[in-house]
Amino acid sequence: MKKKNALKIRRRHSELSYHAMMLPGMIFLLIFSYIPMFGLWMAFQEYAPAKGILGSPWVGLMHFKYMSTLPDIGLLVRNTVVIALGKIVIGTVMAILFAILLNEVKNKLLKKSVQTIVYLPHFLSWVVLASVVVNFFNLDGSVNQMLGTLGMEKINFLGSNQLFQPLLIGTDVWKEFGYNSIVYLAAITAIDPGLHEAAAIDGASWRKRVWHITLPGMMPIILLMAAMNLSSILSAGFDQVYNLYSPMVYETGDILDTYVYRMGLISRQYSFGTAVGLLKSVIGMVLMVSSNGLAKKFTDRKIF
User: What's the whole-number mean pLDDT along residues 7-22?
Assistant: First the structure.
């Protein structure tokens, strides 16, 4: 018994260093994620900064009822879902295709160079990339100058309700598909090379090997990533939209996050903005729990 107790004490002491390493992250999470959650009370109050949360009058579900009467809410949800779905679906397809093609590159130097170039945009903030996108696609940008040299009319990409959503989806896919391909590239490398060799000996072309061996081997990871992305269906990318949109494209570019920002901080409707944000968070939590169940059902793996 003494030996067992001594071993337990040693294990606890050995684990202290790991807990100490986690402590700064836990403190950061507590300060910036959990403590601010007390502000959710504002969704059920008529919040006034002078009175504070404790002194503001309680109004119950008034803001949620008011939200349901607004004609813009349906448009906001539609824009958010369309943009988010476009980013997820097209981004996933591009990441899978890139991973398959990159796996075929045999030159290590070329492979690493391509990986570095394609991964780089992921690590750049939209605050930086938005200025690049604007310089390319505004009326005096590089794309319109090129169209002018070809004798074509200029296109207002950033001010057109028909083109703004494709622009958001396309630029986000360009930024993220390289980095997202890492997990699919890892899934490909886990496939038994003997299957490809046997198929090649039997006369299977590269396309048939990809279709019948590579993609089925990647399918558990594809389904798992799809289930994980389901929880972000109402998160269309605030930082990207905020840095690129304008009142001219509110009809197709305004999303729930930007609406909450405008209502809560710009218009100072703190309680109403909190109510919209809370509803979005609740739906996101339901989707996250659902995605966990779907991941368990189709891939026999849980997200959490």
Answer: 74
